[in-house]
Design brief:
The chain is an alpha+beta fold. It has one domain (18-199). The chain is built from 3 helices and 4 strands. A 4-stranded antiparallel beta sheet has the order 1-2-3-4. Helix 1 (7-66) packs antiparallel against helix 3. The chain is elongated and about 85 Å long.
């Protein structure tokens, strides 16, 4: 009798090979999905950081608008606040005591720095969260409208600078550096937002 090949054995081996190929393809797909999710989370975090920085800058602009007579005191230039640069709360406490414009500005800067450093946001381990930003720094530049003889009326730029999670194009690229952080190294990690407005002291009108 002639030998009859066992078709079941060859079919079974072919099916196992298909399973291995399918498993390999699925594995590659899963790796891609995980990588895409990681990139999505990083992009989302960067968007949240930028939104937070804009909110912090706008908070300071509102303080200045409410106290234009103290604008010279707010004008700290590149002497960034953040990281505990203002050690103690200025006296008097303008939350409970009447203050003059310069005292109010000094207290606003202290309060703003605490917000930058995340003093009001406590993490699960009891530490400050840094307001959602890594090494945040804040700078304020006031340019008076000198051409019209104004000393407390002019343009105010509020800058928030922080360290990003991933290295990319330098956000400053030759522009204004807020503080000494990342001034000479790790420039690809620098992130920055700038909000500008025109502040008017009605007493100068």
């Amino acid at each position: 009798m002639s030998a009859v090949p066992d078709s079941r054995r060859s079919a079974g081996g072919f099916t196992l090979f298909e399973v291995l190929i399918a498993f390999f393809v699925i594995s590659i797909g899963l790796v891609g999905v995980v990588s895409l999710q990681a990139m999505s989370k990083a992009s989302q975090h960067q968007a949240v950081q930028r939104s937070r920085a804009v909110m912090l800058a706008d908070q300071m602009l509102e303080m200045i608008r409410g106290n234009p007579r103290g604008v010279a005191r707010y004008n700290i230039g590149a002497n960034a606040v953040g990281g505990g640069s203002i050690a103690d709360e200025p006296s008097p406490d303008c939350f409970t005591t009447a203050c003059d414009p310069n005292e109010m500005a000094a207290h606003d800067l202290w309060s703003w720095e605490r917000t930058l450093d995340g003093a009001g946001v406590i993490a699960a381990d009891g530490g400050a969260t840094g307001a959602g930003l890594i090494q945040p720094r804040g700078c304020i530049v006031f340019t008076p409208d000198a051409a019209n003889g104004k000393a407390r009326t002019g343009t105010v730029d509020v800058l928030i600078q922080w360290r990003g999670l991933q290295e990319t194009t330098d956000a400053i690229s030759g522009g204004f550096v807020c503080g000494s952080d990342f001034a000479n190294a790790a420039t690809g990690f620098r992130r920055q937002v700038v909000l500008s407005t025109y502040v008017v002291d009605e007493r100068e009108l």
